[in-house]
Design brief:
- The protein has 345 residues and is α+β, with helices and mostly antiparallel strands.
- The protein has helices at 41-52, 104-113, 132-135, 177-180, 205-210, 219-233, 254-263, 281-287, 316-334, and strands at residues 2-3, 13-18, 30-37, 57-60, 66-67, 71-79, 84-87, 93-99, 138-139, 142-143, 148-155, 160-165, 185-195, 241-245, 251-253, 269-271, 276-279, 294-295, 298-300, 307-310, 343-344.
- Strands 1-12-11-13-8-7 form a 6-stranded antiparallel sheet, with no helix packed on it.
- The protein has 3 domains: 2-79, 2-Layer Sandwich (Uridine Diphospho-n-acetylenolpyruvylglucosamine Reductase, domain 2); 84-195, 2-Layer Sandwich (Uridine Diphospho-n-acetylenolpyruvylglucosamine Reductase, domain 3), CATH 3.30.465; 241-344, Alpha-Beta Complex (Uridine Diphospho-n-acetylenolpyruvylglucosamine Reductase, domain 1).
- 38% of the residues are buried.
- The protein contains 9 helices and 21 strands.
- It is globular.
Length: 345
């Protein structure tokens, strides 16, 4: 972990800022005070002010993986650092530095436009580049961790910028050091390492079906196929509020899997670590009869049981209440615990 210098920048504060358009669930939330971050150098000044006033704080990017309360106390840092730059690279891979506030899907499209394939399986995932490594986003057979070189972040503990290597980030399935220690680092830039030798990755079941008659698709064709699949399965947050997949796919021991398989012969699952099996949370929820069900202003999406939706006037309490009903029934039916994926602020 190395230090990274940045010149200090101005502070832009906004009291009592509405955040309904800054979270994909469309929850009616208000920040006591918000700070817009458009350059890395602005972070130090904002955190100095936060510390002086002893305010609670959090970072908000695209708001695609959060559940917001009606009022967010203290300071909310709006991550709006943009820009992407191709760095000097070697013969094996291309390095790209990307601002933490860049829209993730737009960045994936940009890589293809610049003949830098590799991230196409992660198309149409909502949110920002800066939030992506925190969750270690993944889809259709790949994870973002596979393509990260380093991360430039503000270390709140030492009040300075640092560069973290991929190993420093401690990536795991839908997890990272950032997620385990949410008040330690503020991600300003992500440096990606894109291999120059590209290979299509279409082994994931849904994607493999799209290319049964085309075993050698281009990166652009994979990108379009992923967009098609996700559009069918997941509702557009601009139309109906949601945070994508709401629960992690649970991982269980092989012994438990074999026991369940005897009772549920069509149990949807995937190989995981040695001695482990990953179950499809959406399948479990569907078997419990929740798909398409509505509870007041919230419900379960009709095309994908893994997605909880806000029909317009739902609250965090409504969403978490529905989530608990689902967790309880899945636990009673299958003996499996579902973990909520979005961050509850």
């Amino acid at each position: 972990m190395n230090s990274t210098p940045y010149a200090p920048g101005p502070i832009k504060s906004m009291p009592h800022l509405g955040l309904k358009d800054r979270n994909t669930f469309g929850l009616d939330a208000t920040a006591d005070i918000a700070y817009e971050i458009t350059a890395p150098g602005e972070i130090a000044g904002v955190m100095r002010e936060v510390n002086t006033q002893n305010l609670p704080w959090r970072v908000l990017g695209g708001g695609s993986n959060v559940i917001l309360p009606k009022v967010l106390p203290g300071a909310t840092l709006l991550m709006n650092i943009t820009g992407q730059e191709i760095l000097p690279s070697d013969q094996n891979a291309t390095l790209i530095a990307v601002g933490g506030g860049v829209n993730w899907h737009e960045f994936v499209a940009w890589t293809l436009e610049n003949n830098l394939p590799g991230l196409e399986n992660l198309a149409l995932i909502p949110g920002t580049v800066g939030a992506a490594p925190i969750q270690n986003i993944g889809a259709y057979g790949i994870e973002i961790a596979d393509y990260i070189d380093s991360i430039e972040a503000f270390d709140v503990k030492i009040h300075a910028f640092v560069t973290l290597s991929k190993d420093d980030c401690q990536f795991a399935y839908r997890n990272s050091y950032f997620k385990q220690h949410p008040q330690r680092f503020i991600v300003a830039k992500v440096v990606f390492k894109i291999p120059k030798v590209w290979q299509a990755k279409i082994h994931y079941a849904d994607l493999a079906k799209q290319f049964e008659e085309n075993p050698n698709p281009t990166a652009e064709e994979i990108f379009l196929a992923v967009c098609k699949i996700r559009t069918h399965k997941l509702p557009d947050p601009k139309v109906i509020g949601n945070a994508g997949s709401f629960f992690h796919n649970p991982v269980i021991p092989n012994e438990q899997y074999e026991t369940l398989l005897k009772k549920y012969v069509d149990l949807a699952s995937y190989p995981d670590a040695p001695g482990k099996r990953k179950l499809a949370a959406g399948w479990l929820i569907d078997q419990c009869g929740f798909k398409g069900q509505r509870m007041g202003e919230v419900g379960v999406y009709e095309n994908q049981a893994l997605v909880l939706v806000n029909y317009g006037n739902g609250t965090a309490q409504d969403i978490l209440g529905l989530a608990k009903c689902i967790q309880d029934k899945v636990r009673n039916e299958f003996g499996v615990s579902l973990e909520i994926e979005p961050n509850i602020l």
